[in-house]
């Protein structure tokens, strides 16, 4: 694959598309390509995360390993091409909240955190666009949490915890 092919592909990923073609060029130069076979584990729940992965081809099951948590969150999610896995690891030190296992033969692009952060430093407009979108997503999540809290309060008869 050429750098131009990688840039065009990364532009298909909604979060990455926000930062623009020139910033993606820097990232595309630094990505590593990995091939996995069906059943191979990309990462495990609890591991330190220093990068994100973009699914180029194939499919992954992403889910919790802890049976108690898996019961609460339901079945593993199935994701495919142009999915960004582990996006929080691009911005902060964190651990993997789930395990990603290849369902089929797959290819991923590894995006290191340090490259992503240096790119945002070099492209402040990209950083602003990304910050604006992430803020909107967080706000929407908070609204949803309030709705869930209201439903739970209604079930509990409105009693405070």
Automatic annotation (TrEMBL):
SMART domains: cNMP. InterPro entries: cNMP-bd_dom (IPR000595), cNMP-bd_dom_sf (IPR018490), Env_Response_Regulators (IPR050397), RmlC-like_jellyroll (IPR014710). Residues 15-137 form the Cyclic nucleotide-binding domain. Pfam families: cNMP_binding. This is Crp/Fnr family transcriptional regulator. It comes from Ancylobacter koreensis.
